[in-house]
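Q: Second attempt. The first request was missing the SMILES, so the protein and zinc ion are both included now.
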Amino acid sequence: MKHSWAGIIWMDLLSLKSLQQGTVHESEHDYHIEASSNGSDQSCPDCGSTHAVGFGRKRQLFMDSPVRGKRVGIWVDRKRLRCKQCGKTFMEPLPEMDDRRQATRRLVQDVERESLRRTFASIADDVGFDEKSIRNIFRDYVNRLGREVRFETPR
Ligand SMILES: [Zn+2]
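A: Got both inputs this time. The predicted holo structure:
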């Protein structure tokens, strides 16, 4: 384990199975974490084939749940893959990430819970989203709850 005293610290903030944590940068309000995937899943979302070859890389930012009052941003060095079966290209699957929200699934779940009892602005400030993203998560959550309630209503 490496140590550095130039604003870089080491600790296990992620505990995400699909990612390997690199350096953690800490500032007054934020943690920035470098990460790469462990490469365990290369299955094509289109045809399901597991035979894919590397087709470049891309750095992507995902927000994660705040830690000790600081926002957490994870920079993932993510592989682009090309399916040998069907020829489609795709980003390697990261099951713990919500690609649409550019956030971890656990953060989206936290925001869903919080959005029922706090203002969108205060949540947005805490997690590093804009207010519109919080409103979208809230709206989808309430719609989903509505469907579940209707589904469970006896006829
Ligand atoms: Zn395929």
